[in-house]
Amino acid sequence: MPGLEDLYREIILDHYRSPRNRGELSVPPATKAEGFNPLCGDEVVLCLDIDPDSDVVRDVKIDGQGCSISQASTSMMSSAVKGKPIDEARKLIRAFKALMSIHESKLERESDGSDLTAELEGARLGDLEALQGVVKFPVRIKCATLAWNTLQQGLDERESVDA
């Protein structure tokens, strides 16, 4: 499917060249999380403003540097979770990681991916599906998931402060 691969490549390059939600938020009230991949040097800085009454991600700002995959994934993640309740953001984290894992397990012939399909049920990944080709290059999966791991860390840290 060369046409689809070209479209996916364009989506990734668009998010890399023109990242959405670039900037910073005041900490506090925002929660700041930082992710780093020592293998390749990718860095992600994430600021989350979450409404304490509704648990909705009111705003998200990103910064960092790294390869096109990590930075495009960060941009796509910020667009995907902005305006969503925390529960839905966590569901997107699980769905995106499942997308990466399903394709990885199929490539490594560990399973047919059916064990991870439940995580994808009802998830609307939109532009994020453009990153599914990354699994053909296993070393790049960490690049694609860095932003999502950083988001999870930020949500977990916020939860532990509120507890």
Give an overview in words.
This protein is 48% helix and 15% strand. It has one domain (2-162): Sufe protein. Chain: A. The chain is globular and about 45 Å long. The chain has helices at 2-17, 68-81, 86-107, 117-120, 141-162; strands at residues 31-37, 42-50, 57-65. A 3-stranded antiparallel sheet has the order 1-2-3, covered by helices on one side. It is an alpha+beta fold and 163 residues long.
Write the layout of secondary structure elements.
Elements lengths: L1 H16 L13 E7 L4 E9 L6 E9 L2 H14 L4 H22 L9 H4 L20 H22 L1
Antiparallel strand pairs: 1-2, 2-3
Helix pairs in contact: 1-2, 2-5, 3-5
Could you give a short account of the major beta sheet?
Answer: 3 strands, antiparallel
For the record, the CATH architecture stands as: Alpha-Beta Complex
> Helix segment count?
5
Terminal CA distance: 49 Å
